[in-house]
Design brief:
alpha/beta, globular, disordered C terminus, homotetramer, 6-stranded parallel β-sheet
Amino acid sequence: MSEPIWNKFLTERDKAVFETSGYGARQGFGKRPALLIIDVNYAFCDERPMPILESIKRWRNSCGEDAWVAMPYLKRLIDKAHEKGVPVIYTTGVRRADNWDSGSWRWKNDRADEDRSNRPETNVDGNDIVAEIAPGPKDIVIYKQKPSGFLGTNMASYLTLLGCDSVIVTGTTTSGCVRATVLDAFSLNYRISLAEEGCFDRSQASHAINLCDMNAKYADVVKTSEVLEFFGSLPSNLFDLPKGAPVAPHPSKR
Amino acid sequence: MSEPIWNKFLTERDKAVFETSGYGARQGFGKRPALLIIDVNYAFCDERPMPILESIKRWRNSCGEDAWVAMPYLKRLIDKAHEKGVPVIYTTGVRRADNWDSGSWRWKNDRADEDRSNRPETNVDGNDIVAEIAPGPKDIVIYKQKPSGFLGTNMASYLTLLGCDSVIVTGTTTSGCVRATVLDAFSLNYRISLAEEGCFDRSQASHAINLCDMNAKYADVVKTSEVLEFFGSLPSNLFDLPKGAPVAPHPSKR
Amino acid sequence: MSEPIWNKFLTERDKAVFETSGYGARQGFGKRPALLIIDVNYAFCDERPMPILESIKRWRNSCGEDAWVAMPYLKRLIDKAHEKGVPVIYTTGVRRADNWDSGSWRWKNDRADEDRSNRPETNVDGNDIVAEIAPGPKDIVIYKQKPSGFLGTNMASYLTLLGCDSVIVTGTTTSGCVRATVLDAFSLNYRISLAEEGCFDRSQASHAINLCDMNAKYADVVKTSEVLEFFGSLPSNLFDLPKGAPVAPHPSKR
Amino acid sequence: MSEPIWNKFLTERDKAVFETSGYGARQGFGKRPALLIIDVNYAFCDERPMPILESIKRWRNSCGEDAWVAMPYLKRLIDKAHEKGVPVIYTTGVRRADNWDSGSWRWKNDRADEDRSNRPETNVDGNDIVAEIAPGPKDIVIYKQKPSGFLGTNMASYLTLLGCDSVIVTGTTTSGCVRATVLDAFSLNYRISLAEEGCFDRSQASHAINLCDMNAKYADVVKTSEVLEFFGSLPSNLFDLPKGAPVAPHPSKR
């Protein structure tokens, strides 16, 4: 592994500690993975690449241009998974129109109620997955209200149904929903890899250190190319995927 | 709030992003808190204050001297909670003697099997809570195997039984079990404060950035003195606590 | 309590056992209840009162006329809860158009795939809550895929957000989703009452015996009139309810 | 299948309904099962076969002689699982000495506090698994506080770790912890069979009707001989079992 992105945020003592604690071992891939695309929707990406400090004015959760740097990596992962019949599971948010169910989110963010207000400048729904990587008819979409893709959802039931032993996780934010999803997958004893270039965050330090934490304790942080190679090595059509259901049209076309 | 510990790890862009995203609002305390003391056991603290790089040779999970800097803060919190009849819930680990149930932990740590090997130099069990802050007969001890104090435990059931609306979380590691516990409490819509000086980690950057992430999104990071003042302001004996039981080991250890 | 409905299904030994085991104690109501209306949708009720053996030909899950005997009781409970500002939480099912996510349901029912097939005789969606008791703008609707209203949903998070200590459960089927929801509420230490006349099932013996089991171990089976009286005794507007939102379909159905 | 035990408790209408609803289909075994032995401890079995109405005076949860009729079936299942290297997971209860954590159990049972009182007539711990079928060093024991073997435990994490796609469930009580465990396994999309003769309950009607409900909706109720045959058909040593940990001695020998 080349110099990891987090090294420049660590203290010298931290580097020495990580070297001796035994953490950061490489666990390797499993045999039956699902690809998890976490929260790559307009609220986190904006509708086009915009400097983050501009973008964040409209979309308080935006990660700005970094989202769009990640997009082609995400697309390659999804395309390859489709090609091999590997399950692709998307997560995104869902809220009542009156935002009551934002619950604890609202307590920590002064702009939480903007999500449901009228936005004169756009008619995109922030929870819509961005069109460039939008789910196809055999993909699985999980609607959630809290950081983890497992909490308050049927994710665990779906992974059992698919017979998965492992997950490839990527998307956004690294320090938020990606990490929360990784944590639950780890706690359920799934083997986890993170496709590094597909992960993004609005905070650079949080992005780097959360990758560091996850790589140390819960998951392998690997290059997207390694995941693609791994997918390529799998037998085709290992999984009993959904037969296919019509997907709602892109919101701009409704 | 004085300059937070995490600012020196953030980039300039990060600071600007956090300022405008709306995150980091102060939510305030609830009305019926429980105090959660996460994993303050010998495996994370060693048996005495030792330089971390020394300590970590014996106890791979040790946070070294920082654990012992936190100890008096933890003690003050626990004492005040006892005085007012606020529930104190401790978590610590539990493992089979053959370590089978370490599961995914073992995949990521080359030294995972040391936990169960003979230790000529000590007969302390790493999962024992350190004597200086050890639970009393009316305290609640939760044995867990994964980072979160909620996952695979009765934590949620206990909080309902106690009628809690909030938790004060502290202990170790900030980036590991503290964060995982905070995340689940957040997802269950409990109001959360972190007693900052009681939190510790083996990585300095992880400690700081995880406090930053949690303060931004999930919890208020506050000084221990604020929590003590808050406890002081509560009516006494709000809770129907356990009558008191001799502290029992996990049944598998009897 | 008058002779309970289940007595005629019990053996003499059973009655003697229940008398001496200590089970069946009355726990009483809590202080902050939510009303849970479980799965009162067209799939379980049909569109009008029909003899069950007729109805079940069209709707394999139908409970026939018993659903419509329960309906006025359900309506009274809901109206009273609305009047007092007690939260009303409805559950109903949700499925992909290709029925992949029926998972284990399909393994046990030869007619599972009918749910998604064309129904020349109706254009009602089986998962729609029946119009007679349909949710209003301040009510909460939970979409689920498995029996319990808690599993794979945000029910627990909502009950914490509302500060509930108890639930009044009613709806259908007594032996299926009602029981599963009661079981999880019990396990989370919520105090539970079942409004008896609002509960219905397609099997008479299952209805009676499941009420018996729940009354013995998990919940008080009480008359609807007792619940109404209890609601009447509560202070008004104890809860921070949703401000009100147009009732939205599950996002997958938009 | 011969006349099922529950038929004599059903009404004529019930039989007609079950025949047409599509429920009760046979799902068949999975490929990687675990054997779950639910709560076969002294509290539910007494220390020897005793008429239930006698036994229940001492052990309020006792199922009396039926427990001991089941015992040889349980033993055969466990022996065969051991022979083939199929994982055997036992559940049993655990409580604080002051019984605080009985929570909602205590609300519904007038005799709940007996569990912890002195018992002049015995020094057996009710939560100890009966010696005749006690766990061996490679077996897994899960301590729980609520009916389901999944709730508040690491059961789901263990099943993922073992790579199980299915569970064989048996033990006690049919209407209590067996049913609750089956329900959660169903909801997580595990394939489930119940070994009928190994299941027992203190109520005859509850036993029969809960088998009926589970067979209709969640699990196959099969003869123990079928499970033994199925185990016999499996390749040996499919699983990465625990290496073996010393098991605490029988309580009478401590």
